[in-house]
Amino acid sequence: MGGYDRGLHRRRRRPRSLRILAVVLVGAALAAGGYAARHPDLLDRVDVRRTVQAAAPTPPDARPAPTTVPTPVPAAGRVVPGIVYPTRGGGTFRTADTVGAVAGRSGELLRYRVAVEDGIRNVDVERFASEVAATLADRRGWTGDGRWRLQRVGRDDRADFTVLLTTPVTRGRLCGDPSDTYTSCRNGDRVVINVARWVYGVPHVADLSRYREYLLNHEVGHRLGRGHELCPRAGGPAPVMVQQTLGLHGCTPNPWPIVGAEPLTGPPGQYDDPVPAGDR
């Protein structure tokens, strides 16, 4: 399980040769300059390119040929969302343009962008950005206690972090843990939402909409400096910084930092839950 400052789910010691190779690759990407220098929280630094959504689709022969993940039978009570995606996307992103209102009455203002990886189908980037904004502006969220204000900005505006909906393999790449294609993470100024969790949720949270709200609030919470927490009371709601994707440990699912008009927190720490293999 990973360090609190980055919001990752696991930490591994990597061989010295791999660390040297990673430094060389990151250095090469930084040398490319240009857009990465103006928007350091986007993906140029890890050799992932940004694209503007085209008016017409790219010819099929110019695209990679990923294998589309079939939609399985959903769990009881779930609605099939209709989103399909390859396990490995092309590494380019569509970025939402709409600028939103400032959410929150007081506190430090952070601006964020929203982008969706190319290859994820049946996800309109503007609609996804609206869902992100609605969750982050909710009074039960991080802007509800007066400590933070959040504002969604467009493609070319200055931003403090970027919320990215990615394919499972790109998730592993951006989170620095290629073996994990199941969870989501926050790494630096990137809040990485794994489309597999956005589509399928987790078995122990029956309400997919509430799980999605949790997923956004948990990973953005890491960007706001929050670490993982433990369940404070069996039968009570889980603090949002509990790793609810992996287990509840006696708590009940809860997507919000504020419960009953008060911030809900638990003891600092994390459980040694295994990360499921694959992306489902």
From TrEMBL:
Residues 81-248 form the DUF3152 domain. Transmembrane segments: none annotated. SUPFAM superfamilies: Metalloproteases ('zincins'), catalytic domain. Coiled coil: none annotated. Residues 57-73 have a biased composition (Pro residues). Residues 54-74, 260-280 are annotated as: Disordered. This is DUF3152 domain-containing protein.
